[in-house]
Amino acid sequence: MSNNLLKGKKGIIFGALDEKSIAWKTALKCVEAGAQIVLTNAPVALRMGEINKLAEQCGNAPVIGADVTNMDDLKNLFEKSMEHLGGKIDFVLHSIGMSLNVRKGKHYTEMNYEWNQKTLDISAMSLHKVLRTAWDMDALSEGASVVALTYIAAQRVFPDYNEMADAKSLLESVTRMFGYYYGVKKKVRVNTISQSPTRTTAGSGVKGFDGFINYAEKMSPLGNASADDCANYCVVMFSDLTRMVTMQNLFHDGGFSFTGVTQAVIEQMEK
User: Fold this and answer.
1) Could you give the C-alpha distances from 231 to 30, 80, 133, 227, in angstroms and in order?
2) Do the Cβ atoms of 36 and 10 come closer than 8 Å?
3) CA distance 91 to 132
4) Residues 134, 5, 231, CA angle at the centre, nearest 5°?
5) How far is residue 89's CA from residue 8's CA, in Å, rounded to a whole number?
6) Which residue, among 88, 64, 92, has the nearest Cα to 77 in the 3D structure?
């Protein structure tokens, strides 16, 4: 049931691939809360995914392809989005991550540095390029909200997360730095949400994922946060209820991030 929390707001959702995607679920929740949205992803992802199905579920929302590493593509995206929505953008979800070294089985100590540059560009600096494009075009409304999805591996070592840990660290730094400048300029909020391990198409590709998601469940007092839970949190962050929250890394992980050990883990280790 709609709560109209985003009534009248206009947004762009990056990264919806399929029904498992947090971006997919966030798009549905935003529309349910009263927003109008534009969907976007890389051209190759548009061909691989099912985004047209999502667009239909979102009231025939437009789908505009954009390579997030290409400034011309991003300019076109914002131009067409504002034209379709009839005004400036009130919220943006950056749900983008890709690691060539992980895909190709390269260990962190043996990474291919050319692939690493692509990983950092797509997974982290793309947020800077999105914000820079919006800044140059004055495309975001006063008090707009930008949220990027991250993971606690930016602060702690999770060996199989590989170079994506570095990418998420950079993503969080961009959030703080650009968040400062955009806050001063236009009261725009920029935050990251550090989500529990989630069974998305991308997340499930990480080596040892099944074992780790079970471990995280045992280490979280509330259990792992689902993709639906994360989508709800994104809606709150896009709403006017969080107008004074910016430059933050917000843990959404059932308490995992601040738990040293749980009784369930101790009992498992003693077996």
Assistant:
1) 8, 25, 25, 6
2) yes
3) 15
4) 70
5) 11
6) 64
Q: Where are the domains of the chain?
A: 10-270
For residue 43, give the amino acid letter. P
Condensed to tens digits (0 to 9), the pLDDT of residues 130-149 reads 999 999 999 999 999 999 99
pTM: 0.95
Q: In what order do the strands lie in the sheet with 89-94?
A: 36-40, 10-14, 89-94, 140-150, 189-195, 249-252
CA distances from 235 to 11, 120, 251 (A): 11, 27, 15
Q: Which amino acid is at 13?
A: I
Rg (CA), the chain: 18
| Kind of pairing between the strands at 249-252 and 10-14 | unpaired
Phi, psi at 33, each rounded to 5°: -85, 5
pLDDT per residue as tens digits for the range 58-82: 999 999 999 999 999 999 999 999 9
- Tokens at 164, concatenated: 């994506």
Cα dihedral 82, 48, 116, 161 sign = positive
Class of 10-270 per CATH?
alpha beta
Helical ranges in the chain per DSSP H? 22-32, 43-48, 51-57, 71-85, 100-103, 113-120, 126-137, 164-186, 209-219, 227-238, 263-270
Question: Rounded to whole angstroms, how far apart are CA atoms 20 and 227?
Answer: 8
Tokens 């499930």: give the residue: 204
